[in-house]
Design goal:
Elements (H helix, E strand, L loop, with lengths): L4 H22 L6 H96 L1
Length: about 130
């Protein structure tokens, strides 16, 4: 925990009084309102210091999570780029497949027309005999 000079000064200021109050209480003497207020003040300083420690932990955790999130963000951006590349490759593959199918259909149509032409020519020759 990082204490400031003010924190250190305040605790140092009340520490001697707290020791006196502890001795007074251990001797069975009663405590004055001023003694009780000093103990409450020490308790509040301890509570504030504890909260400061927890706040430091939370800030560190948030910074760590931010770093992890930025790492994940970078990974997702990388995946996004890879998917864009794959999309481009699939588009090229699709175009190649379409071209191949078109060529095959054209070739088959030409064969069909040729066979029909041969069949018509053969049928005309057979009709003349």
């Amino acid at each position: 925990m990082n204490k400031t000079n003010v924190d250190d000064m305040l605790i140092e200021m009340i520490s001697p009084k707290v020791k006196q109050i502890e001795e007074k209480f251990s001797n069975g003497e009663g405590l004055s309102q001023d003694d009780i207020n000093t103990l409450l003040l020490k308790s509040q300083y301890n509570h504030i210091n504890h909260l400061d420690q927890k706040l430091d932990e939370v800030v560190a955790d948030v910074a760590s999570l931010k770093g992890e999130f930025n790492g994940l963000k970078g990974e997702f951006n990388g995946l996004k780029g890879e998917f864009a590349i794959l999309r481009g490759e699939f588009a090229i593959l699709k175009a190649d497949i379409e071209t191949t199918i078109e060529k095959a259909l054209n070739k088959n149509m030409m064969k069909l027309i040729m066979v029909m032409g041969i069949f018509l020519t053969a049928s005309k020759i057979i009709d003349k005999f």
